[in-house]
C-alpha cells in the first residue's frame, strides 16, 4: 500500500499583472494540492511592464488570504530558465495551468508534450477558465491601463495600483 503524501503543485506565469483569472486558478488548485508554489517567471522576452520584484510582491499580496481560506500552503517565488528545473527544485510533482480557450490549448499542448519528454514524472493539470474570467489576460489589462481605462474589474487592487504606478498614473 502506498503512503498518501500531500501533492505540491507549481503554477507558473509571468503575472504581469496578476488577474482575477489567475487568482481563480490558485483558489481552485487548492482542491487537489496541499502546497502550491506560484512561480513568477523572469521572462524578459515578454518585455514586462512590472519588474520581477513588483510582480512577486503583487502576487504575494493578492494570494495571502487564499491560503487562509483554503488551508493550503502557498509560496510565491521568482524563477528563470527551464520550467521543469524550477518545478523539480521546488519539489513539485504537478504543473498547474489555466486555459482560456483554443489558442491557449494549442500552445499549452505543445509545452506539455515537451515538458513530459524532459520530465515524465511530472504531470500537467489544466483548469479551464470560468466564463467570468475567460476574456481576461494580463496583456489586455496592460493595454486598458495604458489607454487610461479602469482595470479594477480584471485585476485585484494590489495589481491595479502597481500598474498605475508603473505607468506614472
Describe the structure.
This protein has 169 residues and is α/β, with parallel strands linked by helices. The chain has a single domain, classed as HUPs (Rossmann fold), CATH 3.40.50. It contains six helices and five strands; from the N terminus they run βαβαβαβαβαα. The termini are far apart.
In terms of topology, how is this protein built?
Layout: E1 8-13, H1 20-29, E2 35-41, H2 52-70, E3 73-79, H3 83-90, E4 94-99, H4 102-118, E5 123-128, H5 138-146, H6 157-166
Parallel strand pairs: 1-2, 1-4, 2-3, 4-5
Helix pairs in contact: 2-6
In short:
The protein has helices spanning 20-29, 52-70, 83-90, 102-118, 138-146, 157-166; strands at 8-13, 35-41, 73-79, 94-99, 123-128.
Helix fraction? 40-55%
CATH topology category name: Rossmann fold
CATH architecture: 3-Layer(aba) Sandwich
The CATH superfamily bears the name: HUPs
Order of helices and strands: EHEHEHEHEHH
Question: Which properties best describe this structure?
Answer:
single chain; 169 residues; alpha/beta; Rossmann fold; five-stranded parallel β-sheet
